[in-house]
């Protein structure tokens, strides 16, 4: 996620490559970005030189490492699932904290990202900068913090649910005789087309009704979708992921 945001920022000209430093404990990741963009590899001891730090490590690693990351003069922007601004501020020793929840769309400039921050983050320009950072990789939504885990459970994790649906559709296609390579491509393309159509409709049910001819093929398929409780599975997936976000953010 950190690499995706860096690429967005560079491609949109928000920062010069000379203004960006990176830290990753995996040297091959550092080498990759240094080679590709000429950004500066940094040490943890140099963190205090930064004006702002994007934290894109796993929540459990953050909870182990936060003492090493804390610098009172720095503004922090976190993409970590579950970690609230309260926990960020306490662990990092500053109230200049912004919480963001992007999704994998960031890697192609099409993320839907939730953003929130503290009063201090707003005063110091960190919140505005967070907006700019994530606008460089897609759309930004101001979401109150009490809905962040919900946003994460639906939108942050959502591409994985859609991918499972695409895979299942393709499996269905193969089951009725389509070649695998075509079935996979068709599943992806029909999700894109359906997404574009859905943005023009007031409600998804309108699109569903337009496709389903009386006594036709679609209603026969939809009957099975209802029989196998597809909707309940999708709802329960979002609930479970939201709950998991809360668990990831538990700090003592
Ligand atoms: N993958 C996704 O679709 C999304 C991820 N996120 C959040 O973004 C964060 C990053 O996610 P990913 O990029 O998928 O994870 P990732 O595991 O690919 O990247 C984390 C990076 O942190 C580095 N790292 C781990 N321990 C470190 C340490 N001690 N010092 C320095 N670097 C260290 C790893 O080498 C790795 O490059 C997570 O907190 C996740 O909750 C948020 C939204 C979507
Ligand atoms: O699975 C995760 O925990 C992260 C957060 C949202 C998407 N990936």
How would you sum up this structure, described in words?
The protein has helices at 2-11, 27-37, 59-69, 85-92, 119-123, 126-135, 148-156, 158-175, 180-198, 204-211, 217-227, 230-248, and strands spanning 21-22, 40-41, 52-55, 75-78, 97-101, 111-117, 138-142. It is of the alpha/beta class and 252 residues long. The strands form two sheets. It has a five-stranded mixed sheet, sandwiched between helices. A two-stranded parallel sheet has the order 1-2. Helix 7 crosses helix 12 (230-248) and helix 8 (158-175) packs across helix 9 (180-198). It starts with a helix and ends with a helix. The mean pLDDT is 97. It binds 1,4-dihydronicotinamide adenine dinucleotide (NAI) and (2S)-3,4-dihydro-2H-pyrrole-2-carboxylic acid.
């Amino acid at each position: 996620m950190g690499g995706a945001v860096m690429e967005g920022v560079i491609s949109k000209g928000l920062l010069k490559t000379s203004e960006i430093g990176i830290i990753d404990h995996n040297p091959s990741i550092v080498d990759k970005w240094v080679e590709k963009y000429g950004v500066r590899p940094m040490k943890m001891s140099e963190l205090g030189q930064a004006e702002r730090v994007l934290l894109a490590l796993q929540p459990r690693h953050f909870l182990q490492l936060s003492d090493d990351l804390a610098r009172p003069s720095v503004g922090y922007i976190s993409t970590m699932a579950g970690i609230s601004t309260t926990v960020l501020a306490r662990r990092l020793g500053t109230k200049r904290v912004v919480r963001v929840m992007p999704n994998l769309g960031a890697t192609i400039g099409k993320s839907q990202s939730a953003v929130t921050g503290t009063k201090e983050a707003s005063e110091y320009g960190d919140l505005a900068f967070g907006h700019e950072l994530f606008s460089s990789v897609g759309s930004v939504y101001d979401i109150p913090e009490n809905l962040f885990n919900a946003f994460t459970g639906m939108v942050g994790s959502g591409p994985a649910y859609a991918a499972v649906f695409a895979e299942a559709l393709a499996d269905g296609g193969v089951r009725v005789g389509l070649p695998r390579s075509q079935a996979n491509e068709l599943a992806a393309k029909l999700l894109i087309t359906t997404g574009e159509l859905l943005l023009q409709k007031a409600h998804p049910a309108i699109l569903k009704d337009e496709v389903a001819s009386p006594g036709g093929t679609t209603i026969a398929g939809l009957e099975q979708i209802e029989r196998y409780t597809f909707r309940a599975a999708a709802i329960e997936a979002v609930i479970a992921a939201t709950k998991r976000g809360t668990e990831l953010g538990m700090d003592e």
